[in-house]
Amino acid sequence: MRRLRNVKIVATLGPASDDYEMIRNLFEAGADVFRLNMSHGSHEEIRVRHGIIRQIEKDLNTPIAILADLQGPKLRCGEFIAGAAEIEDGQDFRFDLDPTPGDHTRVCLPHKEIFQALEPGSTLLVNDGKLELKVEGCGDDFADCTVVVGGTISNRKGVNVPDVVLPVAALSEKDRKDLEFVCGLGVDWLGLSFVQRPEDVLEARELAQGRAAILSKIEKPAAVDAFQEILDVSDGIMVARGDLGVELPVQNVPSIQKQLIRGCRKVGKPVIVATQMMESMIEAPVPTRAEVSDVAQAIYEGADAVMLSAESAAGSYPVEAVTVMNDVAVEVELDPTYREIIESSRRIDRRSVADGIVSAAREIAESTEIKAICCFTQSGTTASLTARERPSVPIIALTPVPETARRLCLNWGVNCVIADKVDRFKSAVLAAARGAMDLGFAEESDKIVVTAGLPFNVTGTTNILRVAPCDERLIYAPEE
């Protein structure tokens, strides 16, 4: 299905988007990738949603990407005698390993690894940062704190430790089971929560064994500090602004978002901007003006995708949320300023033949009457490199590998076609021309740029470029 914009839309599925009709409506409204949140829903519910997406894919004859977002290690406090307690600014408060229900002076924190990493002066944040405590003294099984910002602390509230790299694996036992389950289903992307170091990504990659691409969520200060190393071993990145905004001063988040997007664009790996993009649409049929500006800003910065969470998973207006996000994206990309920003922020290290081929393809397409850049790709690398260039003409990725086509649905501007294997370049040009016309990007009188690698069907061999007609008679005409 042809989109009228390049940035992709990720829609989270949940109770509000749980049947064939609704999920299909979300896709037709503009969703390119569906997110299955492993923090919510049983394996059977996830299996059903996955099956519905694949059925829609079959019915519409178009690849659709599925992102399974692993929960990650959730740090939570214990329970209270009364279900909650009030703590006041300046008072003393203790976290410990005693499972006895707590009160206004103490509560259990059943994560001994936290106590092992804490130091005097460390900060503990509770309930999405609404409560702040400073560690005054600590040991292997306790932390004595002063309440900096008080309020109500209640059962099982989340705890963040922003200024400490915790000796906690990014994959809990639940995550390992979930990972094996969704890889068995055949998801395309795995989202890793609370990544702190590149080793976290490598562990997940070893478990996935190539069955899904790895998307690292940047939501910890440690991940920001180690971003380049994490990016090097990841297939994609999510700027998860929820926890990032809890663990860092909120004023730091916009600049971090911009830095992460540019870092991903430089190496040609997709980046999603997520969290609270249109949160008011959980309950309202229209977003706030500030939310529209937030989505637009991510698109102006060159993000590959923008994401809806509760808006599409549990809100009252899931289709409307996708529709508005689609409309915002279309309008932004029609703005001449958008192209100026995208082109002025292009920072690419070109070191390989493939780099040169895709760069030349963009230059040719933008300086002549070319309707599309068509990439034959086995692994998806050529299409990803082409998307990195952010050309002003459509990108069509043709691949005989369905898994590759699905994964590329997350990349900026890439229109995916599952094509037959080819072993001659003329056959590739013909398939590219037909694909461009079938998608509505070109007519028989138009020309396209075709990139491919010889020999065909071998990963990493992009080494040929041709400006070709869409007219089948000219394709088969004798070459001079």
The level-1 CATH class of the largest domain? Alpha Beta
Shape: elongated
Question: Number of DSSP strands?
Answer: 21
Query: What count of helical segments does DSSP give?
Result: 18
Structural class: alpha/beta
**Average pLDDT metric:** 94
Please give the order of strands in the largest beta sheet: 1-2-3-12-13-14-15-16
Question: What composes the largest sheet?
Answer: 8 strands, parallel, barrel
C-alpha termini separation: 37 Å
* CATH superfamily caption of the largest domain: Phosphoenolpyruvate-binding domains
CATH topology of the largest domain: TIM Barrel
Integer-rounded radius of gyration: 24 Å
Number of spatially distinct domains: 3
Helix content: 25-40%
CATH architecture assignment of the largest domain: Alpha-Beta Barrel
What proportion strand? 15-25%
Low-confidence stretches: none
Key words describing this protein structure:
480 residues, alpha/beta, TIM Barrel, M1 Pyruvate Kinase, Domain 3, Pyruvate Kinase, Chain: A, domain 1, 3 domains, 8-stranded parallel β-barrel, 6-stranded mixed sheet, 18 helices, 21 strands, 38% helix
Describe the 3D structure.
By secondary structure, this protein is an alpha/beta fold. It folds into three domains: 8-73 and 170-332, TIM Barrel, CATH 3.20.20; 84-160, M1 Pyruvate Kinase, Domain 3; 353-475, Pyruvate Kinase, Chain: A, domain 1 (3-Layer(aba) Sandwich), CATH 3.40.1380.20. The protein has 18 helices and 21 strands. The strands form four sheets. It has an eight-stranded parallel β-barrel with strand order 1-2-3-12-13-14-15-16, surrounded by nine helices. It has a six-stranded mixed sheet with strand order 6-5-9-8-7-11, with helices on one face. A hairpin with a 2-residue loop joins β8 (131-139) and β9. α1 runs parallel beside α12 (318-334), α2 (43-60) packs parallel to α4 (173-185) and α5 (198-208) runs parallel beside α7. The radius of gyration is 24 Å and the shape is elongated. The model has no long low-confidence stretch (mean pLDDT 94).
